[in-house]
Every structure is written in C-alpha cells, then in structure tokens.
Design brief:
Helix content: 25-40%
Largest sheet: 6 strands, mixed
Shape: globular
CATH superfamily: Response regulator
Number of domains: 1
Number of helices: 6
CATH architecture: 3-Layer(aba) Sandwich
Number of strands: 6
Structural class: alpha/beta
Oligomer: single chain
Order of helices and strands: EEHEHEHEHEHH
Strand content: 15-25%
Length: about 160
C-alpha cells in the first residue's frame, strides 16, 4: 500500500467496506504487515470509521494539520508506531501534544519497545495509552481488536467541537 512514487506523501485514505464515520482513525505504521493486521482487527471489531495511514510521524502531522494539499484529518483516534523513519513517532507525539488544535485527539502508542524510558516519554507527552506489540500475529490481532473496541465503542471521546477547534 506504499505510494509508487517515492516523492508522494506516504499516507493513504482507505475506503474499506462499511467504514465511513465522520472522524477517521489515523494509523501511523510503516510495516505493511502490521497495518494489514490493524485493518483486519478493525473489520472484526466492526469499526465504522475510515482508516487513514501515515507511514511516518512527519506524514501524520501533515495529515492531521491538513498540509501539503490534503484535507485536515479531524481524527477520532491516532494509533502511533514509535519507530518510523523520517520523523519518528516520538517527535510526532510531542508536536501533537503541544498543538492546541490536536491535543484533544486520543492517541494510543503501539511499539515493539518495552523500554521504560519510551513508556515514560510517551505518557509525559500526552499519550493516552501505551501498548507493546505482541510478537504473535494472533495475539497482536486480539490486542488491536480490543483496543479499537474500547477506544471507538466503549470510551466517551472528545466532542466533535473539541476535535474541530
């Protein structure tokens, strides 16, 4: 799903059957395999939101801010991989937390790292949750399905007005 032209911004709006709520889920993930697992978990969880993919932290910021000719993604949720090339998730997290127009967006970090410094950094910079990606595909799928069900179906999210400031 990576753009064929390397000069293009590396995020994609996916029109997955059944998706279409007003505010998309933004997934920052450079691994095609892990992104496909997110899509499968979303389908299993009955997610009704568009899924927008950013391959890097920099692309996530462009997408959320509506820069580079793309409409602003007023996200319902951001799933953020910490370790992406060209502007990693840490920098994106810090900028999202510092930006009054973005800081109300719920943000969940997904990482292969269980390093306490990464965990502490993420919570200090506004992450709402930190999950270590399981090695097993089936466990990863289950964690993502539970996470999406919780954040998009159980928890009360910020109002549309606070997301559209």
């Amino acid at each position: 799903m990576i753009a064929a032209d390397p000069l293009e911004l590396a995020f994609t709006l996916l029109q997955v059957k059944g998706f279409g709520k007003a505010h998309p889920v933004v997934v920052v993930e450079d691994s095609d395999e892990d992104f496909d697992t997110v899509l499968k978990a979303a389908a299993l969880a009955g997610v009704q939101h568009d899924i927008r993919r950013a391959l890097t932290g920099d692309d996530c910021l462009l997408l959320l801010r509506g820069l580079a000719g793309h409409p602003r993604a007023q996200a319902a949720l951001v799933l953020l991989d910490l370790n992406t090339p060209h502007g990693d998730g840490r920098e994106a997290l810090a900028q999202i937390h510092a930006d009054a127009q973005l800081s109300a967006i719920p943000l969940v970090v997904l990482s292969t790292s269980a390093n306490p410094r990464d965990v502490d950094f993420c919570y200090a910079h506004g992450a709402n949750a930190f999950h270590v990606k399981p090695v097993s595909h089936s466990e990863h799928l289950m964690v993502l399905q539970t996470l999406l069900t919780y954040w998009l179906g159980t928890v009360v999210l910020p109002t549309a007005r606070s997301l559209e400031r």
